[in-house]
Structures are given as structure tokens and as C-alpha cells.
Amino acid sequence: MSLAANKPIDEVIAQLRELLGDRVSTAQAVRDHHGSDESWHETIAPDAVCFPHSTEEVAAIVRLCHDHGVAVIPYGTGTSLEGHIQALEGGVTLDLGQMDQVLRVSTEDLDCTVQPGVTRKQLNEYLRDTGLFFPIDPGADASIGGMTATRASGTNAVRYGTMRESVLSLTVVLPDGRVIRTARRARKSSAGYDLTRLFVGSEGTLGVITEITLRLYGIPEAIAAAVVPFDSLEGAVNTVILTIQSGVPVARIELLDDVQLDAINRYSGFDYPAKTTLFLEFHGTEAGVAEQSEIVRDLAGEFGGGDFSWTTNAEERNKLWQARHDAAYACKALRNNCELWATDVCVPISRLAECILETKRDLEENCTIPAPLVGHVGDGNFHLAFVLDPNDPDERRQAEEINERLVMRALAMDGTCTGEHGVGLGKAKFLVAEHGEAVSVMRLLKQAIDPDNIMNPGKMLPS
Amino acid sequence: MSLAANKPIDEVIAQLRELLGDRVSTAQAVRDHHGSDESWHETIAPDAVCFPHSTEEVAAIVRLCHDHGVAVIPYGTGTSLEGHIQALEGGVTLDLGQMDQVLRVSTEDLDCTVQPGVTRKQLNEYLRDTGLFFPIDPGADASIGGMTATRASGTNAVRYGTMRESVLSLTVVLPDGRVIRTARRARKSSAGYDLTRLFVGSEGTLGVITEITLRLYGIPEAIAAAVVPFDSLEGAVNTVILTIQSGVPVARIELLDDVQLDAINRYSGFDYPAKTTLFLEFHGTEAGVAEQSEIVRDLAGEFGGGDFSWTTNAEERNKLWQARHDAAYACKALRNNCELWATDVCVPISRLAECILETKRDLEENCTIPAPLVGHVGDGNFHLAFVLDPNDPDERRQAEEINERLVMRALAMDGTCTGEHGVGLGKAKFLVAEHGEAVSVMRLLKQAIDPDNIMNPGKMLPS
Questions:
Q1: B427 vs B414: CA distance, rounded Å
Q2: What domains sit in chain B, N to C, each tagged with a CATH number?
Q3: ipTM topping 0.95
């Protein structure tokens, strides 16, 4: 036996090969691919990548890593935006992409159980003939496991909630390889600590999620979409506030600023006025969506909204939302060879106009980079997408500084540094500013469940 | 100094008197009053009862108890149903009833922050002129702090969720007296472990909740109520399943069995047919509630529903829901000098009819006590109310045995032993049957946050 073979990681890799055969890889390209996400954080490759097929295999792998003190990093589709999967301490990345089975669907209970590698689009494709759908829709076609781990949301959250509200129960492999189920399948329960919610948003730092039971919803009888431009940001935000206050169960209410609208026009071939604009969607009965959109049209009119174009035509609707989901590509198309850096604050909606206006002032004064803005404004959540030249350190610095001021502005307004992207590496430095002494409780939880710190080490909690 | 004065509790009481003056009591009547809830569990009085006025006072009291290893038991209105506040190891009960201020309300953000002693009715009274309301409504006029600690819900949960979905943020005094805030006021966040949900439902075992920020809702433009009797339980439950599946945003959908209906008729002076009956409520616009109730009427008709009587008249509506909320009193009125024992299972709705039918068969075969049934059936949650003679040990035994079989039946259907009442003393013995290995993670959390086990010791986690 060579000296090198005595290193814990080599021993682990040898045993992984016995366990998984060719479903473990140490090829540089595979390792590099798994060492970076879609964020600006640099690639840090793990020592090996495994492709397990079952909870039992995950448990065996984790137990092995645990016994040798080797880090474990769960990986979904690699679409996270804050550096969630970089292997800071090397170790083994668990690519859960081959655990991609929908295990059960209940049309009576409006729920399903999936493996973590199922993506949101795969799930909805699978559900198509059941009359049900899964509403949570981050920009990427992320895996349900990854969405659970980052507490993701998207455009439908204003009506259907986030992964926090969508997950009924989880199967989790603990850092020592034991397997637990966090809850039964009942809609509600008061039986003990809410372990489900503890693991939702835990970013792979407490265990590996291997099954997810999700709430589903009936596809509404009618769906209508609408677009309305505003002369002022306040007008648009006030329309949002009044819409929600009046109890209109709006399914989507998205704000795009003039810069983003212009980018979308160019990319998707629309000719909307390049103004602050709301994209809306209404779900309900035929009469219901007509009534909802009428109420919102009237509200928008009161706050300076322009031509309110609405449609129940599925093709037009899909084109509209495809354009919205393509916002990131539209941004990328603004510059050659650029990278995106997305911010992600969320504030109480009463402070949203103020927060956006101050941020846009900051951009005007201090930013030479294009930075279109989109917002899930019903929730008070918005993103800037800095369209950066990755080889220009000054552009990186601008984005960093503006993001830092944006986060501090949001925190001062009782908001959060991340509405839906998670902490990862990028937001760890803001965690104490946001939560203060509560971070010490988070550390206690991490130490209690993962005392050897093998689960996704270095993420979320500031070192 | 006498020997007795050297006992930690005496020292604590002496220092509490310095801190709080006459807001600490050791009178037997006060201690006894605080040593029991509304359940069948016997009174176990604390050594002293305090009435703090602020987070700072709570922190000082907890620090004092922590330094002397004395137990701390948070107390709201004493309306819990599973023995949550019995002072198993003596110690100090914190009666939070004098912390009864609504601290802020935002009509723009649809939220408010309250002290824990505010009751749900007080809050709604306070909100009356704002156009907002707080929907969570357990039977009792419980305190918001207590409702948070037991993850309570009620008749509106099918539409508005439970305390799990309603709490945005908490201020908590930790077992060592440190004060944390669990989250900012943003509607959603992916910033770290979900401490808010960890403390919601923690039953006073992890700290003392001293401020609660809650989601509120706009009072709907129109509210309609409806009553519809069924010949069969399956017909009623199938109507519920189809209603929810079809996306009708029903606000309340309550099932009462023939025994409960008869009790309510007698108590509240109604003359409904003594059959399995659904009580419903619809929230929306005038046209919306009319449309919703039409859809449900048609569904009920398909499943053997009888005369569907509906009203938007506020007085009739209030009379109906008062009768529903008085169900417990109606039960009590069935027998002289009786006590109620309420069960609380919740199952996936696809198993609800089966679970109720098997339970009613068990009652028929093995129960001589009246046991009316009411259910928050949109959630799969239902209660039997055993109307017991407290002096008859055989009746107690019957209730215990039927409850035990009921819980095991619900667990076998992937349900929970408690949908909304919490674990307390009464359900602790079922926790391992429900959660298995996950209970060991709950123990780790408890040990991490309360290593000296001073917070409400002996509750929730089985010893």
C-alpha cells in the first residue's frame, strides 16, 4: 500500500468504487463540473463525484465519509447562484441527478413524493395528465432536492408560497448515515419540532435529502395573463400593494424595470413600451379571472398604469412567461462574453418602492454596467442582474459594492439578504448583520446534528 | 438564613420578588390555577407564578432560573388540551397574560407584531377598523403566544394555513436569558436555518416567545356560509375532496357527525337534520362567493348532499359559526358534571372517510360514553369529544383505549397523533411511533438549545 493510499479520501474512494462501480468518478472534468454553480464564485472541485441511485446508497456513502472524516456535498443540477456546491475542503460530491423518479402521486391528497434529482419541469411533465401541477418555479430547471435545500421560490410564490410551504415531509440521510423521515403525510401536525422546515433551506449542511413529499395544486379552470406599463415605479408598487390588500388571489405579479423591458423586447421580439411594467397572471374560474383582472386593471388605472393588455389565450400567455423566464438570457444578450451576477434582497412590501428607487439611484451614480431589474414584487423580492465582463476587476468591484449597499439597505428596512437564492458562500458574510445573536443558535443546531462538520462544510454559517 | 432559604427555588423566589414586587405569587390558589390546563391531566402546581411585562423582564427571570437550575414554564391562557403547563419539576411559571399589547400593525404589509398575551379575539377586535383580520381560530380564545407554541390552527386553516404559515418572525428568550429574533419581516427569506418554524410548535421547551410577528389578511368583500347534510359520511368526505381538488378556495369546511349535530341543535336551538353535515364558508367578491358556493352545491348534490342552505347575512352566519365554536359546550351540556377529553388525529384526506368510519365502528362496539365528532376535514383533521364522568375510572379507560387505537389507526394511514393540539404530556408516548429515529434529532435540538433542561421539562419528548 502506498503512502497516498492511507489518506482518508483515497480509502474512501477505493471503498466507493467497490460500492458503486463506475458510478464514482475522479476525472478532472467531472470534478470541475461539480465544483461550480451558475454564480460568480470560482470552481473548487471535490476529490470525487458519486452518482447514487437510492437512499440506501446515499446512507452507505455518507457513513463511509463520516467514518473517515471526509466532506460530503449534495449536488442537484448545479444551478445555484451563491456558491453552494464548491468543495472548499475537497471530499465527495453526491450528484443526485440519477435519483430522478417520481415515487407516487395522489390526486386525492394533492401531493406527490419524488426523489431529489427530479427537476421542476420533469415533475410538471409527469403530472400533465393528472390535472395537477407543482407551482414553484425558480428561473432554472432546478432539481426538487436543490430547490428544497435552498428554500427556493419564483414567480408563483405570491399565491402558492415557497418551498417552505410546499414541502410536507422529507427523507433525510443524517451526517452519520442514519435515515430519518421528518414528518408524516398529514396536511398539518403539532407533533414535535418542525424538522421538515429545519431541513428546508439547510443547504446540504445538515444531511442529504433523498425523498421529498410535495403539495400539488389542481390546474385552474382558467388562466389569464396581463401586462401593464407604468410611468412611475411607485405607481407599479402601489398597484401591487393594493392588489394584495384587496384580497385578489393573484397568481403572479412580476415587476420589470425599463432596462429589463428593453432587454426582453430585443431578445424575445416584443414591442412593449420600455417602461416599468407589471406582468400578471390570474388563476381561477372563467368568471373569476375576468373579475380579478378587472379589479387589478382599475387599481392600475388609479396609479398611472397604461394600456392593460390581457389574454386567456394559452399561446400568448406562454410566450409572455417564456420571455419572463428568459430574462436572464435577455440580460446576457446585452453584452458579448459577459457573466451575470444576480442580487436577491427581499423587503416588506411597504418599503419596496423606496428600496428599489434608492438602488436605482445608486446604480445611476456608481455603476457603469448594465443592471436590469426584475422582481417578485408581491413578495417584496427583487433581483438586479449585473451584466459583467468577468475579466474586468473594476466591474466585479462595482457589483460587489452595490450589492453590499443593497443588502444593508434591505436589512435596514427589516428585509433579508436573500429572498430565494440562499446563503452559500456569497451571503455568509451578511448572516450576522441579518440575524445577530440568532446565528449562534444556528451554529448550535449545526454542531448538534453534524458535530464533525462533514456536511457541505464552509457554507451558510460564517467562519 | 434558614436551611429552607438555601434551596435554589427559595433563592429564586426571593430575587423574583426584588425584581417584580407583587407580580410574583406563591399563593396556593394562583399556583394551582397555573398548574392545569383544560385537559384531563391532573394539576401539578409550580412553586411560583410571575407576571412579567416585557422581554427584558422575561430575560431576567429566565437568567435567574437558569443560574439556579430552576424550571421555567411559559403560560398563556391555560386553554391547552394535552397537559402543556403542568409543573412536573416545580419551578416558575411565567404567566404572559399581562404582556398583552399589539405593538404594531401594517395595513400595507398585512402584518402585525404582538406580545404573547394578546388573545386571538383581542387581536381581531383591535384590527376591526383596519380592514384586516387574523384567521387562525382554535376553539378557545387562546393567546397568540400559546397558539404559536402549540402550532395551533382551527376552522380557517384549509384556506389560511396554521400558525406555521402565519408567523413571520419571533422574539425569543433563550434558556440562558439571551434574546434572539428568529427572522426579519420580509415575506420570504432563504437566509439560514428556519428558526421561526423551529420555535413554532416547540411548546415552551426551547425558550420563551415574547413577541410574534403575524401575517394578516384583508377582510373579504363578501362572506357566505352554507350548511349541507349528507346521508353518508363518504358522501360528505368526497364532497370535501372534490371541492379542494377543483381549486375552490373554500375558507372553512367543517364536518359534524350526527351525534354532534344533535348536541348543537339542543344547545344552540337549531333544527338541522341530525345527520353528518358540512358547515362551509366562502370568502371573496360577491360574484366569487356565489360562484364558489354554486360549485360546491353541485358537488354535494353529486354525493348525496341534501338541502344546501346558504347565506351572506352576517347575523345568520355568525349564529352558525358561534354554534360550531360552541360545539364543546354543546357536548358538555349532554351530561351533568362531565369532563371533555378531545382526540386530535389528522390523516391524508384520501384516508379520512376510512379513518372516521373505523373509529365510529370502534365507538359503537366499545364505548358507552357520548363522543360527538367534529372535523376540520379540509385538512384531514378531526376530533372526538368524549363526554366523561371524571369519577368513573371505567369511562377514563374507555377513552384512553379508543384514543390509543385511533392514534395507531391514523399513524398506519400516514397521519399524525396531533393535528393542532400539540404533544404536551398526553401525546408524548406516541412520538416515537410517529417519528421513529427522527425523535433522536429532536432530542439533539433540545439538548443543544436547553442543555440544562430547564424549559418546560418533561413535555413533548418522551422520557
A1: 16
A2: 4-97 (3.30.43.10), 99-218 (3.30.465.10), 222-329 (3.30.70.2190), 336-424 (3.30.70.2740)
A3: yes
